[in-house]
Each structure stands twice: as C-alpha cells, then as structure tokens.
Design a protein that fits this description.
Shape: elongated
Distance between the termini: 67 Å
Order of helices and strands: HEEEEEEEEEEEEEEEHHEEHEEEE
Strand content: 35-45%
Structural class: alpha+beta
Helix content: 10-25%
Strand order of the largest sheet: 1-2-3-4-5-6-7-8-9-10-11-12-13-14
C-alpha cells in the first residue's frame, strides 16, 4: 500500500473519531432527556427496548429487530389510547399487535396486522364496557371462518359463516334462549334461501330469493304524513329517509380523509320485534375508521318496522350499504 493511501485511511479514521467524539454526547444527552421525560410522565416503557422518541402523550420504541411500537396516551394520563406495532422505523408497515382503549382502560378493539393487513383474531367491544360486541378471524384483511355478534348482555345474537374470504355462506339469528329463529343461506349466483322459525325452533316458512327482495324485509318508518298503501311505496320512502339521515349525520373520519380512504361499508344488523336495533357489524373488508363511523350513525337510527310473520312481529336481519366518497 502506498504512502498516499495509508495517509488517506488514517486521515479518514481520525475524522470519524472526531465526529463520534463530538456528537455521541449529544445523542446520549438527548436519549437521557427522553428517558427522563418518559419516567416523569409515568409512561410504561417496554423492558430492554430502545426509546426512539418521547413527548407528551406519545412514545416510540424499538422493542426488537424489525419491531417498533408506537403508543399514544390520553392527556394528563398514563392510560394508552392507541398502540400500533410496525415492522419499520418509518411507520409505513403495520405488523404485529394493535389496540385502542378508552380513558378508563376499557378496550375498543384489539387485534394484529400482517404486512398492513388485518390478521388473526380481532375483538370489537361495546363502547365504555368490557363486553365483546363481535369477534372473528381475518386473513389478509378479509373475514374468514365464523364471526359472532353478541348483545350487550353477552348473549349470542348473530353468527356469520364465511366459506371463503369475505363471502358469507350462511347467517344465523338467535333468540335469547339460544334457538335459531332465522337462517340465511347464500349460494353464489343462485341468490338466498331464508328459513324462518318460531321461538321453539319450529320452521314457519322458507323463502327462495333470486334478485327479488324478501317479502318479510324490515323497513324504516317514514316521517312523512303521506298515506302510503303499497309495500313498494313504503320501501321507497323508508330508503329515502335512511339516506337522508346518513347524509345529515355522518362525519368523514380524519384518518380516512387524510389517507384518501374511500369505500362502501356493509353494516349488517338485527331489527328486533319492538323495532329497536340489535347487534351489528361490518361484513366485508373495510377500514376500521369507516366501519366505526358507519356503525355509530346506524345505531342512532330509530323508527324501524320489524317483519310480520305468523301474525307476530319478529326479529330479522338487515344489511345497509353506507358509501364513503371523497369529493
């Protein structure tokens, strides 16, 4: 090796040592300040993790190789409001556990991501309670297997059976005694078969549907004083009232708006015998922020008319598409 190259290597090494000696104390001081702030605020730090960022209501840690955890806290509190696991430091690939909790620490939802797709078991809860609302498994962001909806008392109200991702093969509606009182069987390109049962599980009637609407479908009551005589008039009026209500009450979620997320949310729910709304969930792949907003507004709706079968008002299933579109 010539003297020229030896000199260049020694000079570069000295320069590197100078940079390290100059900047390392700054980095060490910055990390110490972040750690001190986190301890002062009382934020729970992951054991043996490296604290990368810390400010009021926020910490960001590297907990393992290719595993980063971002946590948001409620103001003046050590309660985590949202936690997300990432595969990269730039926070572009969600991968691992995630969850959202209210100020009292009660879960809103809990699950995991696999390469930015919802994956594995997800659990969604009724607001301000520890009571499960619905739960099931996602594969690559789409529903799979059995999804179960519970009422606020923990009774099973609906079960959805997916034979392939985001395609429902069968839906079962239960009464409080756990008896199936309605069953919808879906066959691709063949429509639906709907079986209606009494409270003891005795078959009352079966409908075979192609493209036609069920003659026993629930409807939303009209606020107009107009005298409506036919079922078609009532259905049209009810649909008009529904979409007017949605338009007046939906607020586009900030997260979805900022990220240009659009789509149609299919909210499936129970119209009970007294006209109140029961268990509900989104039955197709959609962003969580759009799903929660659609469910929030649908749950506000009143004046539903249940189906009339065998001379009695009976619970039934209803699916409502809610479209989110940015202008």
């Amino acid at each position: 090796m010539t003297f020229k190259y030896k000199h260049l290597i020694i000079k570069s090494w000295c320069l590197l040592c100078l940079i390290m000696a100059t900047n390392y104390p700054v980095f060490a001081q910055t990390h110490a300040k972040m750690l001190k702030l986190a301890q002062k605020l009382g934020y729970p730090l992951t054991e043996q993790a490296e604290l990368l960022q810390c400010k009021e209501n926020y910490i960001f840690e590297r907990v393992a190789e290719n595993q980063y955890v971002e946590s948001f806290f409620y103001s003046n509190s050590t309660q985590v409001g949202e936690m997300t696991t990432y595969q990269d430091e730039k926070r572009q690939i969600r991968h691992g556990k995630t969850g959202v909790w209210n100020k009292d620490g009660k879960p809103i939802y809990e699950g995991a991501y696999d390469n930015n797709e919802l994956s594995g078991e997800w659990k969604y809860y009724y607001p301000n309670t520890n009571q499960l609302q619905f739960f099931g498994e996602y594969v690559q962001g789409e529903h799979k297997g059995t999804w179960t909806c519970l009422d606020p008392q923990g009774n099973t109200e609906i079960k959805y059976f997916y034979d392939k991702p985001d395609h429902i093969a069968e839906v079962q509606l239960f009464n409080l005694q756990g008896v199936v009182i309605q069953k919808k069987t879906h066959e691709k390109d063949k429509g639906q078969k709907i079986d209606y049962y009494d409270d003891e599980g005795k078959l009352l009637e079966t409908e075979i549907l192609g493209q036609n609407q069920s003659k026993y479908s629930a409807t939303h009551s009209c606020s107009t004083a107009q005298q409506l005589k036919t079922k078609e008039e009532i259905d049209v009026c009810g649909e008009r009232e529904i979409y007017k209500f949605l338009g007046e009450n939906i607020s586009y979620p900030n997260y979805a708006k900022e990220n240009g997320i659009m789509g149609k949310v299919y909210i499936s729910f129970v119209v009970r015998a007294d006209g109140s709304l029961g268990s509900m969930m989104s039955i197709r792949k959609i962003d969580n922020s759009l799903m929660f907003e659609a469910m929030r507004v649908v749950s506000m709706m009143t004046r539903w008319k249940p189906i009339q079968l065998d001379g009695k008002s009976r619970p039934t299933l209803f699916t409502l598409p809610v479209n989110f579109k940015l202008q």
